[in-house]
TrEMBL record, chain A:
The lineage of its organism: Bacteria, Bacillati, Actinomycetota, Actinomycetes, Kitasatosporales. This is Potassium-transporting ATPase ATP-binding subunit. Belongs to the cation transport ATPase (P-type) (TC 3.A.3) family. Type IA subfamily. It is found in: Cell membrane. It comes from Actinacidiphila glaucinigra. The system is composed of three essential subunits: KdpA, KdpB and KdpC. Keywords: ATP-binding, Cell membrane, Ion transport, Magnesium, Membrane, Metal-binding, Nucleotide-binding, Phosphoprotein, Potassium, Potassium transport, Translocase, Transmembrane, Transmembrane helix, Transport. ATP binds at residues 361, 365, 395-402, 413.
UniProtKB/TrEMBL annotation, chain B:
It is a multi-pass membrane protein. The system is composed of three essential subunits: KdpA, KdpB and KdpC. It holds the Pfam family KdpA. This is Potassium-transporting ATPase potassium-binding subunit. It comes from Actinacidiphila glaucinigra.
Length: 705, 554
């Protein structure tokens, strides 16, 4: 079971979330209508000044221009068909980028609507504790760093900042898509507010922490629109390889002409241009930027904002995950897991007493006792009314016990020392058996709660409740998966080493850092990085900020402080620390998609050679017709089929580029084997079939036969 | 013993002998390149050259040293040949013409040993021994030195130093090449190769004609010609000449010698990077390609016979020596074209179209299976980087090879490397085919004539040095064009390899995890082989189609 089912992320992009899928990483489906709506953008991108940024497609465009001129000079059906399809190749490549950008634009529109022209109520002389500071009206865009503004119920917060006074419930649905309001208060780690969100109740004073135009919403819009997009290191490296392959093929074709003339088979510009376009890696060249944009987009759909594509790539490379215990690995509060009765008491009796004593206990621990009693022993939850004259003894810091007095029976539960003392004071005696149960629970990292009852004047211990931090379901499997991917998990906790070890063992993490201070965390990150490892972590507090900045992938929780959000290179709007694992998977999927399509693209060339070379030279050297293993109809139809296939495959693969290839966490070796079979062998075989099918159709076009 | 059995025995004995040498020689070279101790003779050499033997160089300084050393070598060799008539032991040979001098100087310094002249009628003994033979040693050593720097790029961390060129050069000559050459020269002499200081002897043949026979220090030059994957013969007929290669045993030994260093270097690599399995993976790729090529050429030479004479001879015997037969010739031809040696014991021009085409394709692979001394290993490591890059992306990580990340900078140098040689071959052949005068140099017409030109530029740019024969290359245009092709084909890749070494050495290595692409498994061997064949195949397919394929398929 995957964790996403526990807290399904809200998706402003409208993508349906698929719980419990074995391949968790997936993006939204491509709506065919998007292809049409993006067409104008794709045509606009034909501007050579834009095209030059993509060397592979620029070469195709130059080829298209040359064939156009040639077709005008020497018109023929063949020349015009090739010309049209070369132009289509370029347009299809642009289309993929335009579609990817188009999805972002839609999201940006939604965000822009929240950027209304808010009037801010600026406090000119606010100081902590000031009772009636002077107030003036200012446009939100005039707010500067360090300004203080007051916001009351019903008003929009004019800019990003930290709450410095008061507490309020805030509707952040504009950003997170989550309609439940959140509490924001001064001090602590819940102080950050975002411009564009709405205060629902109370009054807060906010210190502005962003410059105009650089607010969270501004950055978010820039990110989803792809305006701030820079090529990532991997993309640059791949581009270099593609450019050099392009040059090699360009040379191979340009120098082919003198060879061809010697062989008595001089080739036309149209055919040479077609050969170049067929050989250079147009499939990956055309889809490369769409893959990058879509990768960011997949994160946005999961409500994660990456400040740079570099961070997304780094996520794929992460070696070590630092996971906060609370909230990520465990539910974050201790729960009753077991009733351990002493001799002479049955478990059911103990459960009964424990349940009685916890009925009025509204703490999570208390509730969990009631739940366990119900689940394990079928004890129906009794309501206070049923118990007549029950008197509940609330927990206090002095007594460290709580309980109930009912029908002359007193039941107490609490810390071992407190309950033991109570028993002793009431004429009973806690024997060594109790002590050994208590010790056993403590040693396993749990918390013992001793339950005692006083009946007939004497108190005696009934047993011990084992409270423990409950590890979320499925974590062990998840960590096993990560281990197979070569990622080490380290649990960070403030617990003592004993407790930490018990939870670490249960959750199946590779290592843990107990009694962790921010300094320890920082030191751990630096130590890992010194060994050449990349580290990812999540954090929300101000004291996490240095570590978030140091980590290679630092995911700040949206509920966290602005210092944390500034320091990290990603922000999770859902504030779900578990998402780190998904972020890693998305990063990997992004790289795999690039690698797979590169392999596919290069493997395609083999079939194209077998189509085009015999078509070019079988007249001069009839023996070369043996290479025409696809038995294509005519030279013209063979070349045309190869070019049409080359163009269409880009469109066919747009959904794959946007969605990313299927990714299942496993070792590098098995991933590679699978991808080589699918994209390497597939890339080798598919075009033979595709070109043949196209040839069977177009051979009927007059002028191509 | 029939030919087939003899052929199989030769191949098995060769593979067995190379397997036996793999570990000891590879380890010895690794030790030579990593040891902290200097021999006395080496220390003397460093003092003489004013070199601090314990100071490592940055990649740029290492590169400058390689280039300076090679430039001085070219100039020295050029002057030597131009002034030969004034020197000792010239055995009456006149000064060599400027065109041939430039071409030959470039050829021997680049480890190509393309010869546009015939040795016995052009070069005196002094030029052969202290000019050409010296280059046979040092040009081979330069290749190993460069790959040593690249391997150090993988093994070192966070440093800008990749070793000391002068130390590497000296040690490889003193500790590896000289001892091996000494021992095997004696074996060659024992096998019948000549070794003397005779001039030109005139003898009367049985039918009463006169024939001039040049003696000379042949065996000593022959051994380093093969060992250093040089290939420049003492005689024009090269290893087909009975004084160089008298019998089937010396033929087998020469094949062994030209393969032995290049096939042991993967061990050196594995040893230096601390994981011998990495070396096994590389040698496996080399072995697969070599074996496939031997099979294809041998089968084609044996069976694609069209003439009556061929059937009588039992195969494509034209241009092959009777004493080596089809098997011994095919084995030699494949090994020499796959190692950048370029020595020949038969005329590749007379091979079957597919067999001859294979010798071209072998060179087009970039001399990497196993390739030249040093250059073969760095060539295949660059292709391994390309393979790791694509495959690494497919496993979802920034690709890394031996713990070093392959980012933009690394890919830039690797891409430039794989771009260089095809560019030189294709542009060179394209120019030659576009110029009517140069085209006239072909002996044959049609596709076969084109193969001759393609072969010449492929051989020069890949620093092989063998010739298809048939093409008249002793013209100013070919001497200059092929000379430049050799120089660019040798030194541009070295620039990129050393720059890459520097860039790798600077990195902090990434620890290997389950998420790291393993580069020692059969999976990687298959992947690398496929990448090599596809990248090379795609680059040269059109050219090959118009040459060997057009001829072979008709």
């Amino acid at each position: 079971m995957s964790l996403t089912t526990l807290e399904p992320p809200a998706s402003p992009g409208g993508a349906p979330t698929e719980p419990q899928q074995p391949h968790r990483v997936s993006g939204g489906m491509l709506d065919p209508k998007q292809l049409l709506t993006s067409l104008p953008d794709a045509v606009k991108k034909l501007d050579p000044r834009v095209m030059i940024k993509n060397p592979v497609m620029f070469v195709v465009e130059v080829g298209a221009v040359l064939t156009t001129l040639s077709a005008i000079k020497d018109p023929s059906v063949f020349a015009w068909v090739i010309t049209v399809w070369l132009w289509l190749t370029v347009v299809f490549a642009n289309l993929s980028e335009a579609v990817a950008e188009g999805r972002g634009k839609a999201q940006a529109e939604t965000l822009r609507r929240t950027k209304t022209h808010t009037v801010a109520r600026r406090l000119t002389d606010w100081r902590p504790g000031a009772t009636s500071p002077r107030e003036e009206e200012a446009a939100a865009s005039d707010l500067r760093l360090g300004d203080h503004v007051v916001v009351e119920a019903g008003q929009i917060i004019p800019g990003d900042g930290d709450v410095v006074e008061g507490v309020a419930s805030v509707d952040e649905s504009a950003i997170t898509g989550e309609s439940a309001p959140v509490i924001r208060e001064s001090g602590g780690d819940r102080s950050a507010v975002t411009g564009g969100t709405k205060v629902l109740s109370d009054r807060i004073v906010v210190r502005i922490t962003s410059k105009p135009g650089e607010t969270f919403i501004d950055r978010m819009i820039a990110l989803v629109e792809g305006a701030a997009r820079q090529k990532t290191p991997n993309e640059i490296a791949l581009n270099i390889l593609l450019a050099s392959l392009t040059i090699v093929f360009l040379l191979a074709v340009v120098t082919l002409q003198p060879f061809a003339i010697y062989a008595g088979a001089e080739q036309s510009i149209v055919i040479l241009a077609a050969l170049v376009v067929a050989l250079i890696p147009t499939t990956i060249g055309g889809l490369l930027s769409a893959i990058g944009i879509a990768g960011m987009d997949r994160l946005v759909q999961r409500n994660v904002l990456a400040m740079s594509g570099r961070a997304v790539e780094a996520a794929g490379d992460v070696n070590t995950l630092l996971l906060d215990k609370t909230g990520t690995i465990t539910f974050g509060n201790r729960q009753a897991s077991e009733f351990l009765p002493v001799k002479g008491t049955t478990a059911a009796e103990l459960a009964n007493a424990a349940q009685l004593s916890s009925l009025a206990d509204e703490t999570p621990e208390g509730r969990s006792v009631v739940v366990l009693a119900k689940e394990r022993y079928g004890l129906r939850e009794r309501h206070e009314g049923e118990l007549g004259h029950a008197e509940f003894v609330p927990f206090t810091a002095q007594t460290r016990m709580s309980g109930v007095d009912v029908d002359g029976r007193q039941v107490r539960k609490g810390a071992a020392s407190a309950v033991t003392a109570w028993v002793a004071a009431n004429g009973g005696r806690a024997d060594e058996e109790v002590q050994s149960l208590v010790d056993r629970i403590s040693q396993s990292g749990g918390t013992p709660l001793v339950v005692a009852a006083k009946e007939d004047g004497t108190a005696r211990v009934l047993g011990v409740i084992h409270l423990k931090d409950v590890v979320k379901h499925g974590m062990r499997e998840r960590f096993d998966e990560l281990r197979r991917m070569g990622i080490r998990t380290v649990m960070i906790t403030g617990d003592n080493p004993l407790t930490a070890k018990a939870i670490a063992d249960e959750a199946g993490v590779d290592d843990f850092l107990a009694e962790a201070t921010p300094e320890d965390k920082m030191a751990l990150i630096k130590r890992e990085q010194a060994g050449g490892k990349l580290v990812a972590m999540t954090g929300d507090g101000t004291n996490d900020a240095p570590a978030l900045a140091q980590a290679d992938v630092g995911v700040a929780m949206n509920t966290g402080t602005s210092a944390a959000k500034e320091a990290g290179n990603m922000v999770d709007l859902d504030s779900d620390p578990t998402k780190l694992i998904e972020i890693v998977e998305i990063g990997k999927q992004l790289l795999i998609t690039r690698g797979a399509l590169t392999t596919f693209s290069i493997a395609n060339d083999v079939a194209k050679y077998f189509a085009i070379i015999p078509a070019m030279f079988a007249i001069a050297y009839p023996g070369l017709d043996k290479l025409n293993i696809m038995q294509l109809h005519s030279p013209a139809s063979a070349i045309t089929s190869a070019i049409i296939f080359n163009a269409l495959i880009i469109v066919v693969l747009i959904p794959l580029a946007l969605r990313g290839v299927r990714y299942r966490p496993s070792s590098a070796s098995s991933l590679l084997t699978r991808n080589i079979w699918v994209y390497g062998l597939g890339g080798l075989v598919l075009p033979f079939a595709g070109i043949k099918v196209i040839d069977l159709i177009i051979q009927f076009i007059p002028g191509l036969s | 013993m029939n030919d087939t059995l003899a052929g199989w025995l030769q191949i098995l004995a060769l593979v067995g002998a190379l397997a036996l040498t793999y570990r000891p020689l590879g380890d010895h070279i690794a030790h030579t390149l990593t040891s902290a101790k200097h021999l006395r003779v080496e220390r003397f050499a460093y003092r003489l050259g004013g070199v601090d033997g314990d100071a490592d160089q940055k990649w740029s300084v290492y590169l400058r040293s390689v280039l300076a050393f090679s430039a001085v070598s070219v100039l020295f060799l050029y002057a030597f040949m131009r002034l030969q008539s004034h020197l000792l032991l010239s055995i009456g040979m006149p000064a060599v013409t400027p065109g041939v001098s430039f071409n030959t100087a470039a050829s021997f310094v680049t480890n190509t040993n393309w010869q546009s002249y015939s040795g016995e009628s052009t070069m005196g003994h002094l030029v052969q021994m202290s000019g050409l033979a010296v280059q046979n040693f040092v040009s081979a050593a330069v290749g190993i030195a460069v790959v040593a720097a690249l391997i150090r790029g993988f093994t070192r961390r966070k440093t800008d130093r990749v070793g000391n060129f002068w130390v590497d050069l000296t040690r490889i000559v003193v500790r590896v090449l000289l001892p091996l050459a000494f021992v095997f020269a004696i074996v060659l002499v024992a096998g019948g190769a000549v070794q003397n200081f005779h001039g030109v002897d005139s003898i009367s043949t049985l039918i009463g004609d006169h024939q001039s026979l040049t003696g000379g220090p042949v065996a000593s030059q022959e051994v380093i010609k093969e060992l250093g994957t040089n290939g420049g013969g003492f005689y024009n007929a090269n290893s087909a000449h009975p004084f160089e290669n008298p019998n089937a045993f010396t033929n087998w030994l020469e094949i062994y010698l030209l393969l032995v260093i290049a096939t042991s270097l993967p061990r050196t690599f594995g040893r230096m990077v601390g994981d011998n399995r990495q070396g096994y993976a590389i040698i496996a790729v080399m072995g697969v390609i070599w074996a496939a090529s031997v099979a294809i050429v041998t089968v084609n030479e044996l069976h694609s016979v069209s003439s009556q004479a061929g059937h009588v001879a039992g195969g494509m015997m034209e241009g092959k020596e009777q004493r080596f037969g089809i098997w011994g010739s095919a084995l030699f031809a494949v090994s020499t074209t796959l190692t950048s040696t370029g020595a020949v014991n038969s005329f590749h021009d007379s091979y079957s179209p597919i067999g001859g085409g294979m010798t071209i394709f072998n060179m087009m692979l970039g001399e990497i299976a196993p390739g030249g001394t040093g250059s073969g290993l760095y060539g295949i490591l660059i292709l391994a980087i390309i393979a790791v890059f694509v495959a690494g992306l497919m496993v979802g990580r920034t690709p890394e090879y031996l713990g070093k990340k392959l980012g933009g900078r690394e890919m830039k140098f690797a891409s430039l490397y794989i771009l260089t040689t095809p560019a030189i071959v294709l542009v060179g052949a394209g120019l030659a085919m576009a110029l009517p005068g140069e085209r006239a140099g072909m002996l044959n017409t049609g596709a076969h004539g084109f193969s001759e030109v393609l072969y010449a530029f492929t051989s020069a740019a890949n620093n092989n040095g063998s010739a298809f024969a048939g093409l008249t290359v002793n013209t100013d245009w070919y001497n200059t064009a092929l000379g430049l092709a050799m120089l660019f084909g040798r030194f541009l890749p070295i620039v990129f390899v050393l720059a890459l070494a520097g860039s790798l050495a600077r990195q902090q290595p990434v620890p290997a995890t389950a998420g790291t692409l393993p580069t020692h498994r059969p999976q990687f061997v298959g992947l690398l082989t496929a990448v090599i064949l596809i990248v090379v195949g795609l680059t040269y397919f059109p050219a090959l189609a118009l040459g060997p394929l057009a001829e072979g398929l008709s």
